[in-house]
Amino acid sequence: MLNFVVRRLLAMLPVLLAVSLLTFLIASLLPGDLALVILGDQATPENVAALRRDMGLDQPLWWRYLSWLGHVLQGDLGRSYRTGQTVLQAVAERIPVSLQLMLMAEFIGLLIGVPVAIACAARAGDAFDRFMTGSAFAMLSMPSFLVAILLIYLFAVELHWLPATGYVPFTEEPLGNLRFFVLPALTLALAEWPGIMRVLRSDMIATLQEDYIALAKAKGLKPARILFVHALKPSSLTLVTVTGINIGRLLGGTLIVESIFALPGIGRLLVGAIYTRDLVILQGVVLLVASGFVIVNFIVDMLYAVLDPRIRHGHA
Amino acid sequence: MSSPLLTIADVAVELPTPRGNLRAVDHVDLSLEAGRTLGIVGESGCGKTMLSRAVLQLLPKKAKLTGRVMFDGQDLARLAPESLRRLRGRDLAVVFQDPMTSLNPVLTIGTQLMETIQEHLELDAPEARKRSIELLAAVGIPAPEQRLTQYPHQCSGGMRQRIAIAIALSCEPKLLIADEPTTALDVTIQAQILDLLAREQRRRHMAMIIITHDLGVVAGRADEVAVMYAGRVVERAPTSALFKRMHMPYTEALLAAIPKLDAAPHTPLPAISGRPPDPTRPLRGCSFAPRCRYATGRCHEAKPALTSAEMPDHLYACFHPIQLAEGVGA
Fold this sequence. Notes:
The complex is a heterodimer. By secondary structure, chain A is mainly alpha-helical.
């Protein structure tokens, strides 16, 4: 098991390195001279050249990458030229919002997706299964901005149950904070559950054909025990993968949903950085988000081992 | 004579397929008394596994079962799901062919044993655990206590089949169905598993059905043998009578197809030529006629019924029974 963990950890290193290189390149390849952007169009060529020298922009690309990487490895991701905030400060300020949104969205998504998948797999092919599979398809094809607007219309405008936009920190007003998060989380969850439901349903249907399920029936076990103990665990590997990918994706914030509901998360930070050409913030945030994604995937691999003893013991 | 523990009466199983209905089991009658062993023999696809699934009520959802499966005075085919559930695993147990796939890979051996015991017997966890250890010891598993926390993949194939047998025996069933229990195992393990089954059967006085494609497996172990071909029982007799004088050409061919140790090297095996008929296109005459060296025109025209001649308990379905004077048969 320890061997397995170490192997997975080592495998992460080249991925993280590649991520850092790509992030750096994408930010550097954006058109336009950063020094010119910062100084504005009134700047003299001498001033621009001086700033370029100060920022190291006159150095070759590979040199700039290595020096940035060197700083990153020392924990210095740089600071915004606009606000003077460091990348870590900016992210630390925004991440609780995106994290809370992600957790609530995944929780609601699993809460809908998993029971529906089990119910469908247990009676695959009947009217309920066909209806839910069809509904999942329909939900999957609805863009999130449309779902967001429909939810706002229904729950905020018509019913006045929930606020349409806004945010208060949990520490200031816990209930109010949750009220602000319900609609955005629901918007994301409505896009998440169809995927969750479809992978779990098809894996469950395959598992239910297994010999050991026939034996579980022949042993006279209760149907609920067969479904939840004998079938769910061996069927949930793909589910864990999908959930991991979802979490990794939502970790980086959601540009559209955070914008619509005016939530100050990572997504809005990124959008702002792109608009203002705040390359240091952009580069740093993308690197952090991508690293978070890699780490979530590492955790997913560890979960496989928890779910399937054969992986834990190095078989299969 | 007491009434039999299991009576299979006129059981037929049809499976819908894209090419039409497949008749997997074609009006079979069998019975088995408490404590006795019935061997069901036939080649792949002859319906023997489907017949056992019909008894266990584990047929695929789309399969259509007709006839009656009377077990201990109740018709399993018409039993409510909850009553059936209470019966399965307690009075009616099964050992499947492949122990690599019949145990759940993500549950410990202890869980898989104890859940059956606790479902059917009123035992608390420590008692169920104690019983599990006893069962594992009884089926010849060394260090049974350590095995409880292990997973199936940590055991060999033979071990796994022993564990599957321990699960089947856990609630003292009245009937154990062993569906090709040794086919997936190494030859050296096969005899051990069969001997284990026979020993536990005698000790617990349970009835057993052994399903196999190998006449050699049932030879010394079954009280009665039913030979199946194309969904039908084509010969049925007490084991000793069958091996002394088989009447059905198919049974003879099955026996001839077993390799003999004393045969000279490079002796070709007399394999049965051809293949069983397409079960979605039943033949008008005897199903074995196209492959039978005794077949005549009559065999292609009409189906021979299952009848007896010299001995009332030796049944066969053939117009030209071997080792019987011609014309004695139906």
